[in-house]
Design brief:
Elements: E1 3-4, E2 8-11, H1 18-25, H2 40-57, E3 61-66, E4 71-79, E5 92-97, H3 106-121, E6 126-132, H4 136-144, E7 148-149, E8 155-156, E9 168-175
Helix pairs in contact: 1-2
């Protein structure tokens, strides 16, 4: 199953995606709002986990391919977090693109398509997104695609230790419209 936009194809992962994803996850600019960059083994484990979730749920974090080059540029998609959150159960929308593809509207384009899939095909009532409070670029994407900041939903990420500078997260929501 693929989702096609004007400039992107959101698709299942391929073996050719591993190397560029390893490079993306090793880039400190891309990983600025994560506790650390990821190793090759961690990156391969992420891909394996994503593929398992596709099997479980019928959706997941699709590999994002740029139509013009047929090249992998990151991921965009839907996920069911594998850890408890104050607003669980939920379906989250997420993305991570290689630095060279930032600021070109690809995240917004892919996120809009993934949101439409979630609401139109999966009939979800709500999709959430969250990030560390200081990640203004991601927050802008959330706002530009029509997600609403829920200040009451701010939370400390359960996978980060107390007093970690990235622990405080903000919550955005988008509700299905009829």
């Amino acid at each position: 199953m693929e989702i096609e936009t004007d400039r992107l194809i959101l698709r299942r992962w391929q073996s050719s995606d591993v190397e560029p994803f390893v490079n993306l996850n090793a880039d400190p600019r891309v990983m600025q709002f994560f506790p650390a960059t990821f190793s090759r083994a961690e990156t391969e484990a992420i891909i394996s986990s994503v593929e398992e979730k596709f099997s479980q749920h019928g959706f997941g974090l699709w590999a994002a391919e740029l139509k013009a080059t047929a090249g992998f540029i990151g991921f965009i998609g839907l996920d069911v977090p594998g850890y408890p959150l104050p607003f669980s159960p939920c379906v989250e929308i997420g993305w991570r693109l290689a630095f060279d593809y930032w600021g070109k509207g690809y995240a917004q384009e892919g996120v809009r398509a993934a949101l439409a899939f979630g609401f139109d095909r999966l009939h979800l009532e709500e999709i959430v997104s969250f990030t560390t409070a200081n990640n203004l670029r991601s927050r802008q994407v959330m706002e530009r695609v029509g997600m609403t900041y829920d200040a009451r939903g701010d939370f400390d990420h359960p996978k980060l230790p107390e007093h970690h500078p990235l622990r405080r997260h903000v919550l955005y929501r988008k509700v299905r419209t009829v």
